[in-house]
Amino acid sequence: MKSSRAAATIVVLALAFAVHSSPAAAKGLSPDFYAMSCPQLGQIVRSHVAKAFRRDPGVAPALVRIFFHDCFPQGCDASVLLTGNNSEQALGPNLTLRPMALKLIDDIHAGVEATCPRTVSCADVTVLATRDALLQAGGPYIDFPLGRRDGLTPASADLVLALPAPSFDVPTLISSFGNRSLGVADLVALSGAHTFGVAHCPSFSDRFMPIIDANPAIGPKFAKMLQAKCAKDIPEGTVTQALDGLTPKVFDNLYYTDLITRRGLLKSDQGLIDHPDTKGMATQFALNQLVFFNEFAHSMVKMSYMDVLTGSQGEIRRNCAVPNTRAEGIETAGDEGHAANM
Ligand code: HEM
Ligand SMILES: *[C@@H]1O[C@H](CO)[C@@H](O)[C@H](O)[C@H]1NC(C)=O
Ligand SMILES: *[C@@H]1O[C@H](CO)[C@@H](O)[C@H](O)[C@H]1NC(C)=O
Ligand SMILES: CC(=O)N[C@H]1CO[C@H](CO)[C@@H](O)[C@@H]1O
Question: Which GO CC terms are listed, alphabetically (predicted)?
Answer without folding.
Answer: extracellular region; plant-type cell wall
